[in-house]
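User: Hi! I'm working on a homework problem where we have to compare a predicted structure to a textbook description. Could you give me the structure for the chain below?
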Amino acid sequence: MNINLTLLVQMIAFGVFVAFCMKYVWPPIMKALEERTAKIAEGLAAAERGKEEQELGEQRALEVMKEAKGNAADIVSQAQKRYNEILDEAKRDATAEAERIRTAAHAEIEQETNRAREELRERMAQLAVAAAEKILQKEVDANAHKDLVESFAKQI
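Assistant: Happy to help. Predicted structure tokens:
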């Protein structure tokens, strides 16, 4: 065998092999590579969209947090205002109750004072009658001299 013939046969076999690969093996490999490239491109695009959506979500979350803080501040402000209103109302009620109790106490004191005066008048009248009896050395009829005793009690 001649080396030239061997080289020629090997070249022909290699050419057939390359033609066979180009016709039957290369198209599925290229198709798989193109599909893989498309999937990778879709993945990158989805990742980019996800990143943009994440940024938008973070911005929205910040806006929602600011709004929530504002609402919380409003609620705290309203609660403080309501607390002050309730406190003022309680103070007014307490003042009104104290005034009512004070008025009732003054009325009771006035009644007690009048009762004590009446008792004192009656006692003074009795003492005056007793003193008059001793002075006159006889019994004075309190019923008979009732008008005189009452006028004397009123003067006291």
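For your comparison, note the following. The two ends are 170 Å apart (CA to CA). The chain has one domain: 41-155. Good luck with the assignment!
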